[in-house]
């Protein structure tokens, strides 16, 4: 069974800047959404991700931490990644999992650590899910105009250092 090209969409094409429509070229459905007064949130782009990565690299270098930074879009797809040449290899996986966890729960992973301890409210969550979650500090969701647009994660330092690195990157990039 095949789907006609006019009805098939994929997450990558639905939010791709190259396929996004502006109000002047949007069809009737898009125009009515804009006319209804619904807030329009600027899309989270690869340029945004690159800015965050550069800011995270500067923050990490400032405290002499070697690691990896991952940036995800709102769908949980990798939008940007960088691993320092001297970083431990697993830091790439931990940075991505921290970002994914922050995105899925819309909360900084530093705020979730206590909840997954044996006596915590969500103590079974890490093993109950078949998803790449990691409850260590260093992952933070990203918001624009009070909307979740993605997440950033850093791995390679102590959890507190990783958390500070992503907070510094977010502040420098002007995101929430």
Mean pLDDT, as a whole number? 82
Shape from CA axes?
globular
Described by strand count, sense and barrel closure, the largest sheet is: 4 strands, antiparallel
Number of domains: 1
Number of E-state strands: 4
Helix-and-strand structural type: alpha+beta
CATH class: Alpha Beta
- Indicate the CATH topology: Beta-Lactamase
Q: Can you give the helix content as a percent range?
A: 25-40%
Question: Strand-and-helix sequence, N→C?
Answer: HHHEEHHEEH
Put simply, the count of helices is: 6
How would you describe the oligomerization state of the chains in this entry? single chain
CATH architecture descriptor: 2-Layer Sandwich
How are strands sequenced across the largest beta sheet?
Answer: 2-1-4-3
- CATH homology-level superfamily: Haem-degrading domain
Write down the Rg.
18 Å
| β-strand amount | 15-25%
Low-confidence stretches: 1-33
Separation of termini?
44 Å
Protein architecture, described:
There is one protein chain. The protein has 176 residues and is of the alpha+beta class. The chain has a single domain (46-173), classed as 2-Layer Sandwich (Beta-Lactamase), CATH 3.30.450. The protein has six helices and four strands. Strands 2-1-4-3 form a four-stranded antiparallel sheet, with helices on both faces. Helix 3 (46-62) crosses helix 6. The longest helix has 17 residues, at 46-62.
Question: What would a concise description of this structure say?
Answer:
This protein has one domain (46-173): Haem-degrading domain (Beta-Lactamase, 2-Layer Sandwich). 36% of the residues lie in helices and 15% in strands.
């Amino acid at each position: 069974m095949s789907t006609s090209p006019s009805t098939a969409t994929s997450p990558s094409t639905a939010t791709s800047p190259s396929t996004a429509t502006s109000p002047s070229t949007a069809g009737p459905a898009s125009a009515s959404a804009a006319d209804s007064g619904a807030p329009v949130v600027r899309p989270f782009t690869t340029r945004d991700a690159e800015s965050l990565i550069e800011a995270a690299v500067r923050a990490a270098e400032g405290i002499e931490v070697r690691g990896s930074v991952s940036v995800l879009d709102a769908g949980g797809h990798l939008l940007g990644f960088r691993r320092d040449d001297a970083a431990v290899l697993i830091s790439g996986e931990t940075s991505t999992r921290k970002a994914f966890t922050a995105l899925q729960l819309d909360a900084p992973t530093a705020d979730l650590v206590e909840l997954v301890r044996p006596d915590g409210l969500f103590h079974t969550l890490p093993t109950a899910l078949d998803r790449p979650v990691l409850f260590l500090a260093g992952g933070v969701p990203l918001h624009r105009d009070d909307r979740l647009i993605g997440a950033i994660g850093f791995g390679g330092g102590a959890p507190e250092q990783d958390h500070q690195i992503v907070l510094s990157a977010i502040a420098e990039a002007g995101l929430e």
